[in-house]
Model the fold of this input.
Amino acid sequence: MMNKPFDYFAPKSISEAVSLLKKHGSGAKLIAGGQSLVPLMNLGLAAPRQIIDLTHIKKDSLSYVKLDKDSLMIGSMTTHSAVENSPQIRRHCRILSETAMTIADVQVRNRGTIGGSVCHADPAGDYLAPLVAVDAEFRAINPKRKVRTISADKFFVDIFTTALKRDELLTEIRVPKRPSTRNGSAYVKHKYVEGGFAIVGAAAVVSVNKDGICDRAKVVLSGVSTRPVRVDMIEKEFRGENLDERAIEEAGRIVREAVHDPLSDIHASADYRREMAVVFAKRALRLALARSRKTGAQHN
Amino acid sequence: MTLYATTQQPHPLRTTLAAALSMPENSIRVIQPDVGGAFGVKTPPFQEEILLALLSVVTKRPVKWVEERRENFLAGGHAREMVHHFEVAFKKDGRVIGLKEKMIADTGAPSPLIGWGMAFVGALHIPGVYKIESVDVESSMVVTNKAPWNAYRGYGKENSNLLMERCMDMVARKLGMSPIDVRLKNFVQPHEFPFKQISGQVLDSGDYPTVLNRLLQMSQYDKLREERARLRKQGKYVGIGVAFEVAPGGACLPDSYITGYDGTTVRVAPTRQVTVLTGITSPGTGNETMIAQVVADELGIEIGDVSVVQGDTDKCPYGLGNFSDRSTIVGASSAMLAARDIREKVLKVAGSMLEASPDDLDVEESKISVKGVPSKFLKFSDVAQAIYRRPYDCAIDIEPGLEATRYFRTPNATHIPDEQGRISTYPSYPNMAHLAFVEVDIETGEVKILKYAAVHDCGYIMNPMMVEGQLHGGIVQGIGGALYEHLVYDDAGQLLTTTFMDYPIPTSMEVPKIEAANHETRSPFTPYGTKGVGESGPVGAPAVLISAVEDALSTLGVKITELPLKPNRVWELIKEAKKVKVSP
Ligand SMILES: Cc1cc2nc3c(=O)[nH]c(=O)nc-3n(C[C@H](O)[C@H](O)[C@H](O)COP(=O)(O)OP(=O)(O)OC[C@H]3O[C@@H](n4cnc5c(N)ncnc54)[C@H](O)[C@@H]3O)c2cc1C
Done:
């Protein structure tokens, strides 16, 4: 398929980029790593009239990992590889590094960005579940330089649809810092071959108190539905419980009920996806729990 | 007109172009640059090649066309969709005495691609390596609105092989016998070669029991069974599969350009460098190295002095290119014949120069010396120059020039029907025993290959590294077909798998370490005793994987009747089997 011709812009600043977005309206598309947009264009599924390239914006204004007292801040143009390898992310939000590692292959990870991935909002996108699970917040800016903060849970609206307005640009993802002990998290992905998209991706975040009793246990699933499935029941049911194998089985049952209308495609039927949601939710929970109990280890 | 084409058969393509465009054949030149990923698909002339040539003739301009991945998925040719209905008759001791098979192939839309032949060739290779007195095969091809079939590594033999291996496994299960013993009971025996199969095909050579037994030794089969028991106690679903493969090669189909000869020119320059022009083409398998090796060995010269030219109709002798394991069987053999003609001339002239009989000469390391008198020698280049410069004295006994073109035809195909109307179309029967040890994730249906081992017989091995490469690649391709690859259509006949995202193929992460070894039984029908190896692997891997997965799920009684074994499908089989178990 021949791509339709388009105009190409390489703004040097964020404000220039959002002004271009505003000026050209609905035909314009931002491009970050191009790892989702370009395949869509090649398949004829997207035909932007203007392409606004974010890679020429001064590097550290969108590509960075920073820390303050309460949160970890990740610039939207941070590549999957950088997320995978950043010592700060590994220390303060290990689940994101673990997730980045499971995405595609090295070439894609070197170009694709966390911002591009969440703005694309492919239901099988790996970051979706962990970002919801860790209560991430997304910051967007518009041409009037107004910054808006959107919670991860509200950000993912539907298949390939986010809460971003047409003239907004995602600048940053913030993750609240948590105490580094007695917290465990895990992302477990079900894929058929290495580099493949998730049939199901399960993110689990668990906190236990010093007696091993659960303070917090949350499971969020990618790939199962049109948007991340957040299994709230687990948060309510397990507070104050000792998370033993029986409890994990019970969690599986709750997940099965929480998955309404699972996606169905050539790789996985709806029934299979629902069952895999259960299987991988349990696997993620077990792993997160084991990590939370490793004393002194920083696994949150 | 010059056509650069990613083809496996430049000469037949030129012939087709000439006919299609009503142009004299000698006004067309087809050049095949380096080609990869052919696997049979690039054998036939494509409609696009004819259209491009026509466009160029009409517009008098160069025309270029690049096929996209999606177009290749849609129209480059499909393969393998076949349904088998079969019944087997057997004795209590495991001997199979009768087989009734009805096979139906969905060959897609009718087309000039050569894929439909796979249904025919599959039927022809029943009952494979087994001796069965009575066989009844009905093969039907149905035309549908899917993409047409095209040749694909295995060329239908993977289907007959799967059928035969399923039969052996089912007989073993029914009798409670070891699947190994059932195979050993039914094999054509080593002393019976050449063996005329009930189909009329003649198996050239082999030692199937030894190949199978070597595999069992190499893979430590008995230990593996203990390991299986140990892992099963831990609640794991592990299984062992063993299967045999025969991947007939060197196809000689009647009245076609898929047949059993090829030609090579060996041309020696006065300064000793050798140019080899051959009708054999390389799809990236490295057969040019092997051709150079043969010529260098026959002439006693350095391989670095030999360069090989392939894939150019203006330079190379008319040849049939590359398909069906033929580059060693026919390509190396024709190169050998041409090189031996050169050698004879060189020795004759060297003999008269050294005043010795040609029979008393040795050729080694580009030197021709008198046997036993190493100090009495000539350089290969001295003789070559003498042949070109001294036609009236020391080279007077030979025809001038140092160039030979020879064709080789595999001697053991027959196209004149026997008394039962049977012909024999494959001269070479490379074979292999496969073993797979797998674990099935009972929760997800994923199949993980823990171990894969194989012992292959391709006759004389000319280049061990190339043989190993072919075996590994072929087995991986077979794993792909068995576990991952599936062209899916929707109800309206739209192909849904048009990217490698939707049509997964195995990566190095899914493929286990493959242990491959060789057992040589030489073919009596090729000059070096070679048999071929290019199609080995994908023919037997599906059978061994079905067998191993069934074994892993044997406590649930899962029976596998279709491929590929994608996790979703295996999970369904497990679920269905569990339901049957719960409510008997
Ligand atoms: C072979 C292959 C395999 C893959 N496998 C996986 C996988 O296993 N798991 C997975 O999660 N993903 C996978 N992906 C997708 C990959 O992660 C992409 O990198 C990611 O989805 C998009 O990031 P990008 O930077 O490339 O964005 P682009 O492709 O450049 O953009 C994607 C979309 O986001 C918009 N956008 C980009 N940046 C911003 C911004 N700052 N503000 C607002 N909108 C923005 C663009 O306009 C576009 O609509 C795969 C991709 C390929 C090519």
